[in-house]
Design goal:
By secondary structure, the chain is of the alpha+beta class. The chain contains 18 helices and seven strands. α2 packs antiparallel against α4 and α12 runs antiparallel to α13.
Amino acid sequence: MRFGYRTYIGKQTSAAPLAVFRILFGSMMVLSIVRFWNNGWIKKLYVEPQFHFTYFGFEWVKPLGEFTYLLFIICGLSALLVALGYKYRLAIITFFLSFTYIELMDKTTYLNHYYFISILSFLLIFLPANACTSIDAYLKKKTYKNIPRWTIDSIKLLLGIVYFYAGLAKLNSDWLFRAMPLKIWLPSKYDLPILGENIMQQEWFHFAMSWGGMLYDLSIPFLLLYKRTRWIAFGFVVFFHVFTRILFPIGMFPFIMIVSTLIFFEADFHKKIILGIDRIINALFKKNIETITVKEHLNPKHRGFVMPIIVIFFVIQLVFPFRYLSYPGELFWTEEGYRFSWRVMLMEKMGYTTFKIKSAQTGAVFTVDNSQFLTPFQEKQMSFQPDFILEYAHFLGDHYSQEGVEEVQVFAESYVGLNGRLSQSYIDQTVDLYQEKESFKHKTWILPFNDEIKGF
């Protein structure tokens, strides 16, 4: 085992695929930041709201007012430097920290692909993505033909986990045997040319999409690994992500996944891309590429320090999505362990939640107007997610305590519908949520789900 490990760690491969990945990743991140800014979402999501939902343990991460724009500028510039390969290590660390801070500022905006970008950028900190075709290499007049094979395999493994775990999550009775929630979503796309009025309304198509999505996620990492099926698999990747982008407003994620899967292709494919880029850089810097010292192999420094971090990183990625098993009840209902587990678009959950403030001293009771504190988007997300409900209850308790209400109690009346089922009472109305504390423990005040969803 030890011999096999050492042999694998010592293997080298072309540096071209990692360089192309760095360029495409950085470029896509720049476009994402520009798009986010251009759509006015910085102001709408982070500057205007007076209250922000936080992640447990990261309550200190808050929007910075008007300086939030500066944070996005830093994030965008660092992404550009990553793409160019200039001061790469500093740039990717800055990007990871700034992007992750943005992600943590408000839990309302949580998306799986934001989490993916954060952990991928963390992984890239430890990879020599600037070994070739980078400004760093040209300024140092030294480039490398080969880098350790594990550096590229680690990205493949991360992409494989994302796809495969998304496929495992689809192995549930709602997705496979009720075609939920696609049976709800697809008919609403009636305005699509040709497909909208006919195909999108057919039940067989809802089931075909459900089963096809599951099979795609489970098989695509393996199809990309083998040369004989790679181009066919990439065709599936392009079709799948473009089609889902047409159907659903999921931003840049489909395009990020498309360019990311290019890492699976042979080095010769990437070398052709590198050749064109090298010519551009050579022209810009007016340096003859042949005058740059070409090193055959890159032997990373601090390998003894980096490898344990990489191993721990992947152990977490493999185990963390299964933390839901430590909680009782239906995962889709309680959502305890739901986030950060690659459960993508698996449920349609709608809720209606109101809060009553009571003074234990005087007995006075009144109902809160949620629109006084929350944006419509925040209220929608809060209405069916228990940790949101609890955090908002504490905000209300603190607010009305400061307003002079004595011995504040906060009670929630909540009704939630899941995947087309009739709504049912969600929160125990007799529990004073102001006295409940956020933790990793099971929230006993969530009422039981009156149905069963079988599967992962």
